[in-house]
Structure formats: structure tokens, C-alpha cells
């Protein structure tokens, strides 16, 4: 019985480790989910989501990640302006009471040469799930000074707010949001 | 015991009616401005005025309370029960007004920004005092505004009852009519 439990625990542990070799280092804040959107067509407004978690699978020395999952707490949006953030959390935009989480689950990753890759996956935002394509590249990997092993990636994509059912009119220059993603994972 | 006068002080009468006008206007503007289109001419102006007037009313209400406590007031009219209810409603209206001022202030100052009062002067922020400050303060501000309007309605019903049913001077003396018997 003890053996069985031990074997089960080992199998479970192993399968979890396989599915998510790297945990995104949100604890140490070596990852960020940033966005920018045009303001009136005259400049860029930037912001980020402060609270998220995720993991990815990656084989050492491989040119690409094999799987990425990220969950974002939508209420953690931060554009460095309390009144605007309150508006963004409200039902004109993210409606965070109704949709407290946004998720990204990769469905396919293709290697585009060198350290470049395209991560295709399902983004669920504001209750709408759509496929998005992230242009990403590996930034680097290796041992950290504290006995761990890390790998980091950067990616960019853009989404149309209307595609996700967010139709508050910010003007013709501001229908798309660019997402700039930086993730560093710690090998488990 | 508090001194008793024949009628209300003209200062208090003026502030009372000014506050009544402001509260109803601010309530309507507050509900309207949060649904404005981004390209509306009022998108920036309406919240700016709402905050400016709110803070000015806060200052005025502080003066009002001090004045009210220092000056004699006319006697309360009606049955003991009515007088007790009236006092309770008056106290609650003051409390709700101050809660409204504080919650409104906390929304706009949650990120450390000051509030500009008509570009005359700025009221500084205390910074973020608690998590999710702008959202929590925003909800409180919204529900208190509705509660205040509800209590003010009760206040108006009471005043009209005194005037039309009891036919006493409660409403007349708040209109500044002197030498009432």
C-alpha cells in the first residue's frame, strides 16, 4: 500500500513536471505582461497586468518552447492612473467582476529558425476565446547564481478589442492593443 | 442645553438650499458622466467639475457643522417620535455627506495624484491607503449617493407633512420667514 502510494505520488509528480517544466517567475517578478494602445492616434499609452501565473515546457537546448499556459487576474490591470484603471476594470472594458481571469493556452508552437518561434494558442479574454499568434523568441537560458536553471522568452502579439467583445469607442486609432510579453521560467 | 432661537440663521438657510441644489445636481451629473463617450466634450470637464464642486461642498459643510453647533436653533416641532426621527435623519444626512466626500476623494487620490479644484488649488493625496482603493471607494460612493437621495426624499416628505398637514412653520422658517407664531 505504501509502495503504491509512493509510486502514484511519483507518477503524478513526474507527469506534472513533464507538463510544466518551468514555472514563470512571477514571485520574483522576472516576467511581465505589458500592453500598449494608441491614445487618439497621437501617442502610446502603456500598462501592464500585475497579477498572473503560468508555466511552460521547454527542453534544454531546444529552439522553442513546447507548451505555455498563463492565467491573468484581470483586476490587476495597472496603467498608472487609478481613475483610468477603475474604468478599465468596469463593464465598458474588462468587466473584471464577471470575467476575473484571462487565460492563454498554447495549441501549437512552430520554430521559425534561430531562436524565433510562433506560439499559437487560445486567448480567453472578456469571456471570449479566440486563437492568437504570438511572435516570440528565446532570450537566453542557463544556470542562475542561486542553484537554479532559468530560461526566458519574449513575445509580441496584437488583438482587436472588438474581437473580444470590448466595444467602447476609443477612436479609430485605438481599436487594437499590442501585447508585449516577457517571461522567465525557473526549471522545476 | 442648546439655546433656542425664533428662526434659522440666514447663513444656515443659505447653506441649506445651496447644499440641496448641489446634491441633486451632483447626483445627476455623477450618474451621467460615468457613461460618457470618450469623444464627448464633457468627458474630462464633467468629472473635473464634479470633483471640484464636491470638495468645495466638503469645505462648506465643515463650516456649516461648526456654525450649526455654535448658533442657537429654532425649536423642533411635532410629536416626540417625529422629533426623534427628524434628528436621526438629519444626523444621517450629515454622516452620508461626509462619507460621500471621503469616498469620492479616495477614488481620485488612490494613485497619489492630487485633485485640482477648478484649477484654483489642488487638494493633495494621502496616497493609497488600502488595496483596490479606487474600486472599493467607487462602490461605496455610488451606494451612499443613492442612500443619501433616499434619505433626502424622506426629509422632503417630512418637511411637506409639517407644512401641509400639521400647518406649522418648519418649512417656512427654512425659507427665512421671520416673526412666525
UniProtKB/TrEMBL annotation, chain A:
Tagged with keyword Signal: yes
Signal peptide segment: 1-19
Protein name: YceI family protein
InterPro entries recorded: Lipid/polyisoprenoid-bd_YceI, TTHA0802/YceI-like_sf
Keywords, alphabetical: Signal
Pfam families in the cross-refs: YceI
Keyword Signal: yes
SMART domains xref list: YceI (SM00867)
Stretches assigned to the Lipid/polyisoprenoid-binding YceI-like domain: 21-186
SUPFAM superfamilies referenced in this protein's UniProt entry, alphabetically: YceI-like
TrEMBL record, chain B:
Subcellular location: Cell membrane
Coiled-coil ranges (or none): none
Statement: the UniProt record of this protein carries the keyword Transmembrane: yes
InterPro entries listed in its UniProt record: Cyt_b561_bac/Ni-Hgenase, Cytochrome_b561_oxidase, Di-haem_cyt_TM
Membrane topology designation: Multi-pass membrane protein
Domain Cytochrome b561 bacterial/Ni-hydrogenase: 8-176
Name of the protein described by the UniProt record: Cytochrome b
